[in-house]
Amino acid sequence: MFQNLKVRLGLIVALTIASLALLAYRYNKTGQPITLGLDLQGGSHYAMEIDESRTVLTPAARRDAIDRALKVVRLRVDELGVSEPVVQKAGEDRIIVELAGKNTDQSRAKEVLQKSAFLEFKIVRPLSELQGILPRMETAIAAAFPAEAKPAAGAAPATGGLLQNKAGQNGQAVDSLTAAKPLESKFAGQGSGGQLLVDTAQVKAVEKYLALPQVQALLPRGAQFLWGMPSSEEQKGFASLWYVSRDAIMTGEHLQNAQAQTDQFNRPIVAFELSRRAGRRFEKETGDHLHEQMAIVLDQRVYTAPVINGAINTRGQIELGKSTMADASDLALVLRAGALPAPLHIVEERSVGPSLGEDSIRNGQIAALVGIGAVILIMIGIYHFSGLLAVVALAIYVIVSMGMLALLGATLTFPGIAGLILSVGMAVDANVLIFERIREELDHGRSVRAAVNEGFHHAMRAIVDSNVTTLITCAILFYTGTGPIRGFAVTLAVGVVASFFTAVFTTRTFMQLYLERRRAQSLSI
Amino acid sequence: MRFFQNANYPFLQWRTRAYMITAALLLLGIGSMVYHAVRGEGWLNYGVDFTGGTVVQVHFTHPVSAQQIRAATSAAGHADWEITQFGSGNDYEVRTPRFGQEAGADAQSRVAQALQTRFKPVVQGQRAGDYSIVRTEAVGPKAGAELEQRALIAILLSFAAILVYLGIRFEWRFALAAVIATVHDIVVTLGFLSLTRTEISLGTVAAVLTVVGYSMHDTIIVFDRVREDLGRPKHGRTFVDILNKAINETLPRTTLTVATVMATLLALLAFGGPVIFGFALVLVLGIGIGTFSSIFVASPVLYEIERHFPRKEKREQAVRSHSAKRPNNGNRPPNNRSPRTAEVPR
Q1: Closest partner CB to B133 (pick from A353, A378, A482)
Q2: Which of A94, A246, A413, B164 could form a disulfide with A37 if both were Cys (CB 3.0 to 4.6 A apart)?
Q3: What is the per-residue burial (b if ≥16 Cβ within 10 Å, else e) of A62-93?
């Protein structure tokens, strides 16, 4: 099938177009055809470990602790509001956090990353408590943000749902001020667990309103609003807002263990265990709030709020209803995360300001243009028409290798550029090898076609061997190396594969097409 | 345009001179490593990536002298901080030796605080201000030690794998010679880095790895020719002739490829900016060394191996050529391992 020149040409064109399309797609989506590493783009990179200076952990305990810490760190990073943060486990005992972007507040990021996780059990308060207060809260908000209250007034009857209706049913007088309902109009309804739903677009506004001191003062004593964690049960596009007691009935320090299990009906549950002393207090608290909901709060975020079915002593279980086992183990992890055995500490920190990153990129672009220009001149100057074919193949190489990097979701870093330079060198080298071979064969008096065939044939073995050797090295570097070395290995490997395709397959197709179409008796080489 | 057409340089006859150059380079490099290690400066000038510590790069909006910056940090009680100019006159690196919890608190803001005794930071949206922090690198000592260990393991493992692969595809002697030549490149490159006290960072590691890749590639290309020539009728040619011929035949390719790679690297060197400069410099040197070694180290080493451990077939072949005049069923010597031919997509 690859004998047919048209098939070969079609393959080359298809691959090139596919690569271009992929790059264009990525460019539209993220603003960059290939994700740039923090060293080029600007941003911060942190590596964190569990601080074992005071405690000694068994390997199993360390693994567990790292999984828990990962969960906690993910939560925290979300809180920072950085777009597309990277939080991942590196090796056995390290967590990598990467925050790309120009405006990352470093000291805040570090503070947030290093603080220890905090788990609380809180009682969910009935929303009906709010009914009397809400109009006064609206008034306060309207006073603080008069501009925002006005336009909301018109929209309120249409969108404002639940509390408004309830207020109407209760027969409360709808005074003139309730027409302006900046807060209530943001509520989209009530969730299945008794939480308020807020359109994600409105979260910022609601946060601003609730943070007002006047509004805070109106809240009943010991009550507060907490946001929920986005989860699979949640409705898409809505954030949940929980109304809970300010004081926790229990905190994570008393939690000794939590595990995902199944009950006798094979439904997922999370079984947890408290210390003996905490158990007595917990029994009293849960007994007082039977059939109410208990919110499980990690780092000020509500995870879930199961209904208390009976007083819980040291051992309790949380039924998850229709949820899956994965949800159960997730919740168990959250519970355990609240009691990290040792704090996290940062072992590595790198940050590059955006201006430096931009400088590097601009300099790199100039250098790349000059370098590639020089390569083009050399190739055409020395091999004339064949050199031109090689240059076209090189252009396709650049497109295809970039496309492959984009496909792999690889991140281009500084060491990655080194890998690219080497692979460009090797791409050109493959053609140089082949062309030199063709010249030799022509010197020996062979016909053009025979020389081209022989040239490719003889050069092939050396190209294969050196490429395979490079790929072996890449594989080893990838498996033993850390971040930047891995980046180098990936770009080099991609480059080698792409260069093999372009320098050998593409150039040969072009040459044969030329020879066939022109019935050429000579080749400019 | 063609050059080195039908070149016929007696490269192998120059091997004694090549050995001397190689020995001198190795001695210089290893000597420098030992000298610096004995003096307690470390055999290489490891940067914070390896030793741990922090580097904060500060950009000033107007020319400042290192003394002025040192005055600021000293005033803040950090007389031990190292201040070095970086790139153009307005960029400086402030280096603090410790990372620990104390530094882990926040390297960047500590440096900022120290500088604020004399300078004003550039605040976004305001015109006034003297400096802005453009880069921070803080590495814990443990992370650094691990990096060195991992790099070493990676290089050793890849040597083992390359030995096996080339042993299968070529012969063990080619594999060994290629690896020896590559080790030579690494040692000479590291020796150069030690001698000039170039700071070793992650970028340098990547550059050295690139050099290893290039040198291996280069060596394989020459050896492939040797392998091919070995499969041809000998007509009284010695191994030295075959090696010389292989090097000469690949000479146009070697020169051209070095020219194109160097063109890109020199462009990086000239336009890449200060961050890339050190990295590109290591590459330029390393690729020069790698090219030298594939001609003057790998092939001579292959020759020496051949001389000390001649292949068995040779003697048999010699006996055969004396005893029989018949052309032995074609051109190839019977027992000489015939090179495998690779599949060629047509």
Answers
A1: A353
A2: A413
A3: beebbebbbbbbbbbbeebebeebbbeeeeeb
